[in-house]
Amino acid sequence: MSQPPLALTMGEPAGIGGEISLKAWHALRGGACPFFVIDDVTRLQALADAIGLETPLREIEDSAEANLIFHDALPVLSIGQTIRCESGKPGIKTAEAVLDAIRQAVALTMQDQASGVVTNPIQKSVLAESGFAHPGHTEFLAELAGGGVRSVMMLAGGGLRVVPVTVHIPLSEVPRALTSDLIVETAMITQQALRRDFGIEKPRLAIAGLNPHAGENGMLGPEDGAVIMPAVEQLRGAGLDVAGPLPSDTMFHEAARATYDAALCMYHDQALIPLKTLAFDSGVNTTLGLPFVRTSPDHGTALDIAGSGKASPTSLIAALHMAHDMARQRREHD
Fold this sequence. Notes:
This protein is an alpha/beta fold. The chain has helices at 17-28, 41-50, 65-69, 95-110, 124-129, 137-145, 174-177, 180-198, 223-237, 254-257, 268-278, 314-333, and strands spanning 6-9, 35-39, 57-60, 74-78, 117-118, 152-157, 160-164, 204-208, 241-246, 262-265, 284-288, 294-297. A hairpin with a 2-residue loop joins β6 and β7 (160-164). α8 crosses α9.
């Protein structure tokens, strides 16, 4: 029995989400990774015409229709309103529709009418101006999943998986934000997801140090010994295969990457610099710890090229493939 299609959200309509959605369908229409996009079919048709990308679109009323027509047309589940905007010029008038697309995708996935959520990039500044209280997708998805959910961001690509323990906070606040409990919790969620969603029976985790040379026995900072090492010892005591704290400047060369399945990093750029160096065009952002599968292309709205026909769908295609594989693996595991 085939699994339900993936739900792809509209994202910021003034950005490149619509264009890469159209291009992703052209790339995947002959394969086994069907999806439908939650959007305004009139907007998508106008965009396809504007960039000269002949694309058959078909509005659907039920997500189950997507699997049946995907080879012949891009299925579009209506967002329920007409979306009017100019490429490259976002505004708050479409903010609620952007959020509604995410809500619909999550609801359909939670009801098993979609196998996973794939989110096109959003314009966070516009959403914040409209009153959106979350820093991004990850926190909003955790809220939609229900109370008590702790979500973790993983970036994957180029043979590397990285998990930042702290994410969108100033670098100066990282030492105060890091705790042994936070590291342990993040590692446990990552280990469970590697088993359930990626089919890795015995995951190997590498945990980066915070300071240069992982603190050099306290000479270059106390956090590695006082905060990270106790977390490593606790995880080992729980039976996890964990190495660390490791100097981050020697963790990401080819031979080192072969020794672990995911790297836990202490702050945002420690994780994203190596990932984007290896997979700038094909990286995928996935949220671990949710009761549903969620992935996203690892780039922004690219307002500077929106509507030009120049946007690459590579990262979105990778996100769709990963979500499809994760959903299949999760079903088999469960």
